[in-house]
Structures are given as C-alpha cells and as structure tokens.
Amino acid sequence: MTDMNPKRRHESPLFSPFLVVVAGLAWWFFLPDQLGLLTKLAYTALFVISLDLVVGIAGLPSLGHAALFGVGAYAAGIFATFVSPDPLVGLFIGALAGSLTAALSGLFLLRFQGFTFLMLTVATSQVLLSLANKFRDLTGGDDGLASYVMGGVFGVWDFDLYGKVASVYAVASLSIGYFVALKFKSSPFGLSVRGIHENRTRMVAIGTPIFLRLWVTYVFAGLLAGIAGAISAQTNGIVALDSLSFNLSAEALVMLILGGVGRLHGAVLGTLIFGVLHHTAASLNPYHWMFAVGAILMVVVVVPRDTLLATLRSLVIKQPNRHRAQP
Amino acid sequence: MEELALNILIDGTTYGMVLFVIAVGMSVTLGLMRFVNLSHGAFAMIGGYVTAHCIQAWGFGFFSATLLGVLFTIALAGTLEHTVLRHLYRRSELTQVLFTIGLSFFLIATTNAIAGPQIQLIALPDWLNAQVDLGFRVLPAQRLLVIAVGVIVLVAISYAVAKTRFGVWLRAAVDNPDAAASLGIPIRLVQSTTFACGAALAALGGVLGAELMPLEPFYALKYLVLVLVVVAVGGMGDIKGTFMAAWLLGTIDTASQYLASSWGGIFFFVAMILFLARRPDGILKARET
Is residue B38 one of the residues assigned to a domain? Predict the structure, then answer.
C-alpha cells in the first residue's frame, strides 16, 4: 500500500540505518552538549519502530506497548544489580525479557482485534505497573531502581558523564535494530503479516496461519522493545515506574502516527520530531511544553499531509506541483 | 465485617455512578458516531474547573455554578465539533487519536496557564454535606445525590435513544448517514447535539466526582484510562452495559482500595481482562461465535 513508489521499492534495507548512523555521528560531533538527548531519541526510536511493527505492519492498535519496554528496562536493571554489570549481556537479558513477555501476553492478546485488543494491551501494561509497584524489594517501587553501576561496553568503554559512550552505544543499537526490522518487514514473512493486516479473510482463505504469524511478529516487536528498555536502563542508570506507564505508551503511539504508520522510517522521523519538539518546548518553558506539542499535533491532522509535503517540496525544489495525491 | 461490606458497596456505587456519567458520553460518541474522542476527559475537567471557579470567585450557589459549568462545556464542545471535529468523523481512527490527544495536551496546558497546577476544590452547600438517615444507615447527602443523578442519567438516555424521535434519528444517522440524510434527517444537528450532550454529561461527572477524582490539570489524561476501560467493558454505545460496567468496576476498585491498597489498580485491570475475555462486545452481550 505505502510502498508503491518504484524508486523506494528497490531501496536497500541498509540505506536508512546508514543514514541514522551518519546523522548520529554528525550530532555527536556538532552537538556534543546534547548527547543525552541523542541517547534518549535513539532508544525511543527503537521502541517506536517496535510499536510500528505491531501497529503499522500487523495492524494491531496497541496502547500498552510500554509493558514490553518497561519489562526490558527492569530486567536489565535487576540483572545489573544482582548478577553482572556487563551491558551487552544485560542487553541480551532485556531482549529476552521483552520477547518472553510478548510471547506470553501475545498468546492471550492476539485472540482479539481492534478496540478490544487496544484496551487489553492497556490492561496488561497496567497490571505489570501494579506488580512493579508492589514488589518493591526487587524494583524499588516508587523510588525506582538505581543501585547499580554499569560496566564498560566490551569491558573497555565505560559509560562517561557526558554520554559519549552511551550515545554511540544507543545509536549503534538503533541502527542494527532498524536494519533487522526493515529486513523483517520486506521479507516474505513480513509481507504475509501485512497481508493479514490488509485482508484477514483472504489470508485465511489462502491458508496463512494467522495466529502464528501475528504471534511471531509480536514476539519480535517485544524483543526490540526489550532492547530499547534495556538501553534506557543502562544509559540512565535508573529504572523508574514511568517506563511502564500509560503515558509512555501513548506518547510512543503519538510519535508513530506523527511520523507515519507502517513504514518504519516514519517511526524514526516521528520520534525525532516529537523528541526535539518536546525538548525545545520544555527548555523554553517547562510548564507549557504541552501547549506547543498539542498545537502541532492538531495542525498536523488538520492540514493534510500531502498539502504540507507539497508546499515544503515546492519551497525547496523550485518546480510546479504536478498533481496532488488524493488522500 | 458487614459494616465494611456496606461501606464498600456504598462508596463503590458512588464511584461507579461518577464513572458512568463521565463514560456514557464517550461510549455514545465512540459506539454510535465512531469517533474516538480522547479529549473527553478534558471536557470533564473543564466542567469541574468552571464550576469551581464560579463558586470560589463569583460566589454562585452549587447548582447555578454546576449549570454554568455544564453550559460552558456545551458551548466549547459545540464550537469545537462544529469547526474542527466534524471533519474528522470520516478520517481514520489513528488520526482521530492524534488530534484529540493533541487537543487534550492543549487544554491541559491552557488550564494550567489559567488556573495553576494546584487542586481545585468544589465547595458543597451545607445541606449536601449533611448526613441523611435512611433508617438502616446514615449517609452524606452528596453520595445520595451522585447515585440519584447516575440513575436519572441512565433512565433519561435509555429513554431518549430508544423512544424519542431524536433517538430514531440518531440510530438512523449511525447506521447509514447518507440514506438518513436523503430521508431528510438533519444529520448535522443530530451529530452536534449528541456530541454536545456527551460533553455536558462529562462536565456533570467532573463536578460530581470532584471529591473522588481531584481536579488538577492532568485530570484530562489521568482518568482517561479509567473511562476507556468502562467504555470497553460496557460495550461501545451500549448504555445499560456502560452502567453495569461502571458500577461493577467502581465497586471492585473501591474494594481493592479498602482491602489491598498496596496492590494498586491490579484487581481493577484483572477484572477488566476477565470481563473483556469473556464478553469482548460488552458486558451485557453474549459472545457470538
């Protein structure tokens, strides 16, 4: 549906992740005092990519995706506290926790569709939030889990105060995760999942095992979200309850819709736009950032995307609009 | 023990009625008009804020202030519906989510800028604070008022949708807007009125529930999940279902706060999962398979 542009169809899945690396490096050299933001954007983008696999590719509206992120974060934090400070093993543990949670909850959730699915994802994440709050010996409850110190990446590069190592670590993980997600999306498996999204009845008729396909997609999304959560735990040095919160799920969905659903690069763009906007508005006036963000979300909806893009394009490239696509 | 059970029942019922009054408007717009209005919580908040302001700053009585709060919300919601929201009815659900979340953010920031971040109190008149003796039990009059309003709203809306001409128009407009319009039903009037009524009920719920759900700028998002849960469990557009869901979930949440507060909202959400798993189309509708 979305990739009918012939130029884009043959695009290598290496291209966009490569762009991410280039952009990350540029940021690293030119904005060295904003590396904290870069790190946050990188792991959030990975999380939103994971959400796009569920919402955009598989067509399952989720408003509880923070469950998978938060479980990954807590798993990495608890692992660092009690077992080993090695970040890469912690990343693996986070991925494992995220995909296990997705595998178990998916067995139940994927029996439902539409609004019911949406509300059940909310409930699942809220149940996990209550559990994290209840078992405070393990998770620190309201105070968060902060009593761990991370080791160096590969045992060599320690996380420094300025976030130099952290941002490289996060951007590298993002580009690898992004690449794998793009491969997944364009694989025959990914295409059949898109088929389920677009016409479930027909896919049943040609013999696709619907439940299994959706389940594997959900588990894969859980893996990416778990990694994103683990990175947030490792680079921030704290896991708080808000990593499981409804707000995080809702913001991720807003970022995804903002950037465009179902294309993966929309997830990265949406995170970038929302993240930078949030950061700028909040640093201008910490109390009224919602003003700016809210207004822009509404403008994006009211002004048609094609008009917006066409105007921008005609401003950049001096050529007349040939035709405007009908929405 | 009996005392405790009775307390839970009464408080739970009160809470449930507040949830019902707020949620029913959302259930109708979502189920009957297919419009995902995540700014519904913001309407409840605005109704509460305007009422609180009328009482505190201008010295209005409780009832006239509530009336003003509801009317203001109707005016605001009606204007929004007429200028912007009606263009979104036929857009995708995700677009509606994006816009109404943006609207909620905007209204939260505006409320914060005008009234500040502190909690607003709605002062009750003396006779509402008074204790009423029911024979078997002494209750604050405010609880009785909330329960009574909940029941009246249930009866009034069920009657309006099922029996009146407007209800017929509404159901026709929902089933097939084009055919309904060509039969001469004023579609736009039906849509605007329904939307405004939903917002009015939200405002009323915001005022009535101010003691249980304190009015602060993040109210709009904080209680959105609760309202969505009630709508989902009750079944979209099902008024009696929403009533039952609100009552049951309100009682369960109150009971868990009395008996196991350290577990947070877990019982509420587990109950919701069980209800939805058994009855995905609504609590009063058996699953068709």
Answer: yes
B209 sits in which H/E element: none
3-state SS, residue B131: strand
Question: Tokens 């692992």 identify what position?
Answer: A79
Angle formed by the axes of helices A35-52 and A246-259, nearest 10°: 80
**Cβ-defined contact of A253 to B109 (cutoff 8 Å):** no
* Structural domain of B115: 2-278
- For the record, the structure tokens of A78 come out as 């608890």
The single-letter DSSP state of residue B133 is: E
Chain A / chain B CB contacts < 8 angstroms: 119
The residues facing A153 across adjacent strands are A157
Q: How many domains does chain B have?
A: 1
Q: Select the residue of B91, B101, B107 nearest A254 (Cβ to Cβ).
A: B101
Average pLDDT rounded to a whole number, residues B209-234: 88
Helix, strand, coil shares of chain B, percent, nearest 5, are 75, 5, 20
B228, B104 contact by CB (below 8 A): no
Task: Note whether A294 contacts B102, CB cutoff 8 Å.
Answer: yes
Q: Which domain holds residue A157?
A: 6-244
**Cβ neighbours of residue A205 closer than 8 Å, sequence gap 6 or more:** none
Whether A277 contacts chain B with CB within 8 A: no
Looking at the whole model, is its pTM more than 0.90? Answer: no
> Is the interface score ipTM higher than 0.90?
no
- Here the CATH number for the domain that contains residue B261 is 1.10.3470
Q: What residues of chain B have any CB closer than 8 angstroms to a CB in chain A? A: 30, 84, 87-88, 91, 93-95, 97-99, 101-110, 112-113, 117, 221, 225, 228-229, 232, 236, 262-266, 269-270, 272-273, 276-277, 280
Q: Provide the domain count of chain A.
A: 1
Q: How far apart are CA A194 and CA A210, in angstroms?
A: 11
Asked whether residue A59 is domain-assigned, the answer is: yes
Q: How close, in Å, is residue B66 to chain A by CA atoms?
A: 27
In three-state secondary structure terms, A157 is strand
Asked if B51 contacts B180 with a C-beta cutoff of 8 angstroms, the reply is no
**pLDDT tens-place string over residues A58-94:** 989 898 999 999 999 999 999 999 988 889 999 999 9
CA distance A261 to A268: 11
Measure CB to CB from residue A298 to each of B94, B106, B266 and give the nearest one. Answer: B106
- With a pLDDT cut of 90, the percent of chain B lying above it is 40
A112 domain-assigned: yes
